[in-house]
Amino acid sequence: MARSKEKPTITTPHPGGFVRATIIEPLGLSVKEAAQALGVHRVALSRFLNEQAGLSAEMAIRLQKAFGANMVELMRMQNDFDIARAREHEHEIEVSRYVPADAQLLTQPRLF
Q1: What is the tens place of the pLDDT at every residue in 69-111?
Q2: 54 within domain boundaries
Q3: Whose CA is closest to 77, among 11, 14, 10?
């Protein structure tokens, strides 16, 4: 399934934008400098900060160790963002409620 390049139209913030606005920009760091401090590739950090990639648990730990960010709160933010994004497309997912075979037998009248 191809993913749209458009940002979701949700009000739940992406943690990348939050990190950019509350950590990277106030410290006056370039993406390259921040990537060096975190020990990650510049492109990987850039994609996260520009809300094109999600936050991994490893990146959250790096942000916590390097800048004192709250790893748990960042991961909650990512989870909330993912849930909100999935809810936007919930109507496109067609799945019927699963009913176990045993449950079907209980709802059918007995013939003996």
Answers
A1: 999 999 999 999 999 999 999 999 999 999 998 866 666 666 6
A2: yes
A3: 14
Which CATH number characterizes residue 26's domain? 1.10.260.40
**Could you say which DSSP state residue 12 is in?**
S
- DSSP strands (E only) in the chain: none
Q: For residue 25, what are the domain limits?
A: 15-88
Number of separate domains in the chain: 1
Among 41, 47, 45, which Cα is nearest to 7's? 47
In a domain, 8, yes or no: no
The pair of structure tokens assigned to 53 is 């990639």
Please, which residues have CB within 8 angstroms of residue 30's CB and are 6 or more apart in sequence?
A: none
